[in-house]
Amino acid sequence: MDSIQLQKEIEDIHLALDTPQTIEQIQKAIVDECVSVQDVVRYAVTCFASHQIYVGHGTDNYWDEAIEIVQAVMHLQPPCDESTLSSKLTYAEKMLIAKILSLRIFERIPTPYLTHRAFFCGHEFYVDNRVIVPRSPIAELIEKGFDPYIERVPQRVLDMCTGSGCIAIAIALAFDGETQVDAVDISTDALDVVNINIDAYGLHDLVIPMQSDLFDNLVKNDKYDLIVANPPYVDAYDLETMPEEYHKEPSISLGSGEDGLDLAKRILCQASDFLEDDGVLIMEVGNSEEHLVNAFPQVPFHFIDLKKGGRGVFMLTCDQLKAYHDVFGQGSK
Fold first, then answer.
1. Which of 44, 77, 182, 295 is deepest in the core (most CB within 10 A)?
2. Which domains, and CATH codes, for the chain?
3. What pTM did the predictor assign?
C-alpha cells in the first residue's frame, strides 16, 4: 500500500470513528444484526459513547444505562446476571429497544421517563416527566434507619418536597409500618405520581400526600420526629449549564434562586415549629453546600459523610434550629 492509499485508509478510519450513528443505523443494527441481550447492550454503549450522552438519572455509566433499558423492555428487575446477558431477544423487543435508544440519544430524554421506572433504596417507583428522577443520596440514611441521628423509631415523619414520593415510601417501608409519613409537595401533578406509587405499595394508611407550598398548608404547630427535606437547590449558574437531560425534568424541581437556596432558607426558618423537642431536620442542598455555609457561617451544620457518594446533606437538631431561628429568618428575607 503506497503512502497516499495509507493516508486515505487512516482518514476513512478517523471519519468512521468520528461519525455518530444515525437513527436508521441504530434501528437496523439492533433489529437485523444483534441477537442476544449482550449484543444489544454492547452496541448501545457504542452509540451512547459516540453521541456523548450524559448519564446521571439512576446510572453512572453507559453499560448500566443500556442494561436498564433492555431489562425494562424484558420486564426484568436488576441486577442483570449471565443468563440474562446470553438470552435472545425477540423482534418486537429489539424494535422497542431501538425506539427507546433513539429517544434517549437524539432527544436526550432520561431513561426513567422512557421506561416509567426508577429505583431508590432497592425499591421500584413509577416516574414520568411530572417529577424529578429519584437519585437522592438520602437513600443511604434511610437504609441505615437514620442511625445515629435519631435514637428511636420515628412515629411521624415529614417528607418535604416529596416529588415522586420515593423518600416517603422508602421511609415507611424501612420502619416496617411503624411510621406515618406526610409527603408534601407544591405540585399537584407530582402528587398524582405519589398516589400511583402509594397504590403500588398499598401504603394508603402510612404515606399521606399533601399539597402545600412548604409548610403553608400544614396544621400549625403539628409536630414531627423527623423532617426530611430535598428541596430544589440548583443555583442559577448550574441550572443554565446543566446537561440537556436535566432540562427534561420539571424546572420547578431544580432551580431555587441565584444561590439555589431560596426554599432551603425558608425551610430552615420554619422547621423548628414543626419538630418535636428531640426531633431533627435532615436536608439535601447538593452543590449549593458552599453557598449555604457562606450564607450562615455561624451555624454548625453537620454535613454527613456519605459512603455511597453524594454531597450536601446535613443535619440540625430542633434545639439548633431554634437557637439560630433569627439568623435563618434574616437570611430568608
1. 44
2. 3-115 (no CATH), 130-331 (3.40.50.150)
3. 0.94
